[in-house]
Amino acid sequence: MITVKSVKSLQYKISKLKANAHKIAFIPTMGALHAGHLSLVEAATKDGLVPVVSIFINPSQFNNKVDFKKYPRMVDQDTILLKNSGCKLLFLPSVKEVYPLNFDPRIEIDLEGLDELLEGVFRPGHFEGMLQVVKRLIDIVDPDFLYMGQKDFQQHTLVGHMIRKLHLNCKLVIGPTLREEDGLAMSSRNLRLTPEFRSKAPIIYQSLLYAKKNLKENNSSQIKAEASSMIQESGLKLEYFEIVDGYNLSLVTDPKNHEYIVACVACWAGDIRLIDNIVIKGPSF
Ligand code: AMP
How many Å apart are CA 102 and CA 115, to the nearest integer? Predict the structure, then answer.
């Protein structure tokens, strides 16, 4: 695996790969890598692509400065994990490299309200920052495919929307959410959970499974209330539990009117904010 820090050297390496008829799968990350991230690298390799991973903790997508400061940083360990997982190229840019002086990162597309619900309510500006960095990284890497995780459902929904709106020449591939044995979705933030909240956190996935099992015609508000109580009674602080249309994120009242349904949850486990989701109906990941 080769590690590069500048846009120029990355683009040189990529042009050589492309000249040899390789197809590039790009996997943007913020590091503190776990098996979920690595599963995307492995999936890309299995699909016959050359995986290129970036590690960049993007300041502009953190609406909370403490979260940014405390975000785990462990590049040496990440490098070893990536090497062992089959990653070919690691891009480790500085903030200046991603956002050079006088660079205007703004993206002028209509997000059609996809950024206003769920995470958008609680993390103002987050998706704007996320889309800016993903667009900038796509422009730098020029990948054939972009691999992202279902774990960040709203994120990949917005990225898919941006790719379509801007006619970007790369195809989005979604990998399934990898979980710990007790069901907790793997996340870099799990490293910061206290033992007490780590033991409570599996209730998040249990609430999602409950919703998936019990959602029926016209009972979505009841299921939402019951799943919300499961989380609240466990001692986690709920921000939202919503059952939404997987395409446009509108709230589902009657499941039979929707072909793609996702239940989404966000809550605080002590100081750590966790999100998760489950596909109840439709495209399965
Ligand atoms: P992050 O480093 O959190 O920005 O995540 C980088 C990529 O890894 C995103 O596309 C995430 O959706 C994906 N990812 C994060 N956690 C998981 C997981 N548990 N399973 C699968 N993919 C994940």
Answer: 26
User: What's the predicted TM-score (pTM) here?
Assistant: 0.97
Q: What is the pLDDT of residues 118-144, one digit of tens each?
A: 999 999 999 999 999 999 999 999 999
> Are 195 and 160 part of one and the same domain?
no
By DSSP bridging, strand 50-55 and strand 24-29 are parallel
Range of the domain at 259: 188-274
> Residue 260 carries which DSSP code?
S
Q: Are residues 132 and 254 both part of a single domain?
A: no
Q: Are residues 127 and 195 in the same domain?
A: no
Q: Is 167 known to be catalytic?
A: no
User: Residue 28 belongs to a domain with what CATH number?
Assistant: 3.40.50.620
Quick: pLDDT tens for 220-270: 999 999 999 999 999 999 999 999 999 999 999 999 999 999 999 999 999
Residues having CB within 6 Å of any atom of ligand 1: 29-30, 36-37, 39-40, 148-149, 151-152, 175, 177-178, 185-188
Q: How many residues does the chain have?
A: 285
